[in-house]
Write a structure and sequence with these properties.
The chain has about 110 residues and is of the alpha+beta class. Helices cover about 30% and strands about 15% of the residues. It is built from 4 helices and 3 strands, in the order ααββαβα. The protein has a 3-stranded antiparallel sheet with strand order 1-2-3. Strand 1 and strand 2 form a beta hairpin. It is elongated, with a radius of gyration of 16 Å.
C-alpha cells in the first residue's frame, strides 16, 4: 500500500510541464488538468500552466519561458481568424477573437 499511496500522491503533486508530458494512460483515464492560463495566442489556442491539486497555492514564477513551462492547448472545432505574427498580416477580426478568448480565460 505504501507504493500505491506514493503513486496516488504524485498525481496530486507532480506538474505536467508540457504537452509532451501527457501520457497515453492519462488520456485513456480522461485525467483532468487544472491550472492558470498564462498566454492567449489567437482566438483558438492558449497556454496553460499546470498546477496540481496539492500545489495550487504556489505562485507561477515570473521569469519562465512560456513555451517550455506550459501546455499548448488548441480548441477543437474552433476556427478563429489568425492574428498577425511572423511578419504576416492578421485576418479580419483576429484581434477581436483573441481579445474575447483572453477576457474569457486569462487568470482562470
Amino acid at each position: 500500500t505504501g507504493i500505491a499511496g506514493a503513486r496516488g500522491l504524485r498525481r496530486f503533486t507532480q506538474r505536467v510541464v508540457t504537452a509532451d508530458d501527457i501520457s497515453l494512460r492519462m488520456v485513456q483515464r480522461k485525467r483532468r488538468l487544472s491550472g492558470r492560463v498564462v498566454h492567449v495566442g489567437d482566438g483558438d489556442n492558449f497556454r496553460l500552466y499546470h498546477q496540481p491539486a496539492l500545489r495550487r497555492w504556489e505562485n507561477i514564477p515570473e521569469k519562465i519561458k512560456i513555451s517550455e513551462q506550459s501546455i499548448h492547448v488548441r480548441l477543437a472545432g474552433v476556427d478563429a481568424p489568425e492574428c498577425a505574427h511572423f511578419g504576416q498580416p492578421g485576418q479580419p477580426y483576429g484581434e477581436e477573437a483573441r481579445q474575447w478568448l483572453r477576457e474569457d480565460l486569462t487568470g482562470k
